[in-house]
Amino acid sequence: MSVRLAFLLLCCCLLAAADPLRVSTADRTNVASLPGLDGALPSCLETGYVTVDEDNGAELFYYFVESEGNPASDPVLLWINGGHRCSVLSALFFEIGPVQFVREPYDGGLPRLQYHPYTWTKVASILFVDSPVGAGFSFSRDPNGYDVGDVSSTLQLTKFVNKWFSEHPEFLANPFYVGGESYAGKLVPFLVQKISEDIEAGIKPAVNLKGYLVGNPSTGESIDYDTKVPYAHGVGIISDQLYETILEHCGREGYFNPKNAICSHALNRFSDLLGEVSSAHILYKKCIYVSPKLDDGTTGRKILQEEIVVQNRRPPRPPMDCNTYPNYLSYFWANSNITRETLGIKKGTVGEWVRCDEDGLLPYSSDLGSIIKYHRNLTSRGYRVLVYSGDHDSIVPFLGTQAWVRSLNYPIVDYWRAWHIDGQSAGFTITYANDLTFATVKGGGHTSPEYQPERCLAMFGRWISEKSL
C-alpha cells in the first residue's frame, strides 16, 4: 500500500470514528457503527448516492464496505440483488456482508446486529447497490424515473460504475468483479458486457475489470424452469409415474405451457406436490405467517411515532425459527429514523422502506431476453467467470444451470470432482477453458451464502484469489 493511499484510507476511518455513528460530506457518509451493533464495524463503511438519470432526478443508493484485509489491493466486488426490486440489504445482512441480525423475538425496539464471521469482506471490498431505481433507498424525484427495465436499469448501473470510480480513483487499479444471484444473475453478464464495451471505447475512468460471478442465476431461457420437473423427480418430490406422464404428454420442454388435458392435469399435480416444500431450499420448513403484531412474551416496548416512519406495508410475522425471520426484522431496522440518519438517507426521498416490491407497485420491464450470448461473448474474451448453484434450490435448479454452462461447448480442463473444506466435500465443481468454473454448494439453497455461509466464503475466497476450488 502506498503511503498516500494508506493515509487516505486511515483518514476515512478516523473521520467516521470522530462521530460514533457518521460523518457526511456531500452525497457520501462515512459510518463507523450501525444502529443495533455493539461496537465498531470491522472495516470502513461508506454510504452514498450516485445520480444515474439527470432528467428525472433518479439516484442509486450504495453501501461500500472495505475489505478487512488490504483494501488498497484486494478486489472490489459490485453486488446487485435479485427479486422484485429487492433491496441490496438482503445481501448485506443475510448473505455476504459483515453484519447480520440477532435472531430474537422482536419487542418493538431496534433489532440488534452482530458480526458475521463468514463475510466476503474478509477477502474483498464490496460495493452493494440498491438497483433498480425504487429498490431500497434508491429513488427518483420524478415518478417517471421509476419506469425502468432490464436494459435501462443496467445502463444506469454502467453509469453508476463510471461515476463511482471517478469519485474513488484510489480503487481503479484494484481487480474489479460484478456479482449477483437469482434474477440479478440475468443482469450481471449484460452489465459486464456494457462495462467492457466502455473500456474498449476508451471511456474514462477505465476500471480493472476481471470477471463476474452468478449464483442460481436466471438466464431468460426456458431451461431455468424446464428442469424443475426432473429435479423434483430426482430428489423424490414426484413419483416415477407422474414424471413419466409429464414426459409422455408434455414433452421434455415447455413443461409450463400444457398442450393437452392430460398434461395440464399432470402439471397441476406437479405444482401441488412441489408446493409441499420450501421452493428456495427444499429441506427447510415452509413458514406460516401470522398477523404483524408484536411477538408474545416480549417486554411490550413500542416504537414512538417519531422513531419510525409510516407502516403501510409492514410484513407478516413468520415464526422465529423460520429462515425468513431476519427479513421481518429488517423492515423495522431500515424504517427507524435513527438508522436513516446514520446511513445518510436523504429526507423525503423514501417514505417507507420495503425489502422487496412484492406487490409490483412500481413498473418494471423484463426486456432483456436470453443472456446466454453474453456469457459466451465474455468468457471468449478472457473474463473470469464463476457460476455456482445451491443444490437444494427448486426455483432455478442446478440441473438447468449446469446444462447451459455445458452448452457453451468449451473444453474441460478440470473434470467433475468434489471441492473440500476440512477434508469434507463442500460441493462439486468442473472447470472449462476460458476460465469458466461451475460449482455446486452442498446444502445450498436459492441464495447459497444465506444457507451455507462457511462453504460460500471458502468458494468465493479461493476463486477471487485465482486458486482452484
TrEMBL record:
Gene3D superfamilies: 3.40.50.12670, alpha/beta hydrolase. The keyword Ribonucleoprotein does not apply. Residues 1-18 form the signal peptide. Keywords: Carboxypeptidase, Disulfide bond, Glycoprotein, Hydrolase, Protease, Signal. Pfam families: Peptidase_S10 (PF00450). One of its GO terms (biological process) is proteolysis. Belongs to the peptidase S10 family. This is Carboxypeptidase.
